[in-house]
């Protein structure tokens, strides 16, 4: 698995936010996207995962290779924790939800309706979902929000195991997960300038 992203431009609300983003990622690697609030990390991740079209550029991998997890994880509130994981396993055509249940310490919560989980427990369920997708590239937007220290460590272990098994991950996070094979990309340099800014001098001449 090799992901190559070339000259990708992405937009939000009809306005270009990032221009000409290029990077490559191999199996076993994690890419940590960095940049200030509002620069376009979420927009970039959503575009990579195929949830919105790119303005321009190339992504060599099919979105079907990717699993996306963000703040809204598509958790079904009335289904139990176990039913949620079983549902996703059926959607993605995979088997065996127990490893995900164990990795995120959800076993004791298996019968609880997801709507009754705390914010951190919900996030753990959303991250456990990644494991049952069976997809090689995980695209993660602020995955550690709401997680306590113990849960952050659980998540770090799961990501490390995913990379060791030949998967890859792209994530926007401010937390150092101590991953062995992580590279970082500061997207500040790719900020798209608006037409007004492009012609700023001319506007005054
Ligand atoms: N619906 C929208 N219409 C217009 N602009 C939007 C819309 N949603 C977001 N934006 C703007 O698009 C830009 C990129 O937003 P995005 O959420 O991708 O940034 P981010 O880097 O993930 O930010 P943060 O670190 O705060 O989560 C921001 O300037 C934001 O204000």
UniProtKB/TrEMBL annotation:
Residues 3-205 form the ABC transporter domain. It comes from the Bacteria. Gene3D superfamilies: P-loop containing nucleotide triphosphate hydrolases (3.40.50.300). GO terms for biological process: cytochrome complex assembly. One of its GO terms (molecular function) is ATP hydrolysis activity. Keywords: ATP-binding, Cytochrome c-type biogenesis, Membrane, Nucleotide-binding, Translocase, Transport. It holds the Pfam family ABC_tran. PANTHER family: ABC TRANSPORTER I FAMILY MEMBER 1. NCBIfam families: ccmA. This is Heme exporter protein A. It comes from Lentibacter algarum.
């Amino acid at each position: 698995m090799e992901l190559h992203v070339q000259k990708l431009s992405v937009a939000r609300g009809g306005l270009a936010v990032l221009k000409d983003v290029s990077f490559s990622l191999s199996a076993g690697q994690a890419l940590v996207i960095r940049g200030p609030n509002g620069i376009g990390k979420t927009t970039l991740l959503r575009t990579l995962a195929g949830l919105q079209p790119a303005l321009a550029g190339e992504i060599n991998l099919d979105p079907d290779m990717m699993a996306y997890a963000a703040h809204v994880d598509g958790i079904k509130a009335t289904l139990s924790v176990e039913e949620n994981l079983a549902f996703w396993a059926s959607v993605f055509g995979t088997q065996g939800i127990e490893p995900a249940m164990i990795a995120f310490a959800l076993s004791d919560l298996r019968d609880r309706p997801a709507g009754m989980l705390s914010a951190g427990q919900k996030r753990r369920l959303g991250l456990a979902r990644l494991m049952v997708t069976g997809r090689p590239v995980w695209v993660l937007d602020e995955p550690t929000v709401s997680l306590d220290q113990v849960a952050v460590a659980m998540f770090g272990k799961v990501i490390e195991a995913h990379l060791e098994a030949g998967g890859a991950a792209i994530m926007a996070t401010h937390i150092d997960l101590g991953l062995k094979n992580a590279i970082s990309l500061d997207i500040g340099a790719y900020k798209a300038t608006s037409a007004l800014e492009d012609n700023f001098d001319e506007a005054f001449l």
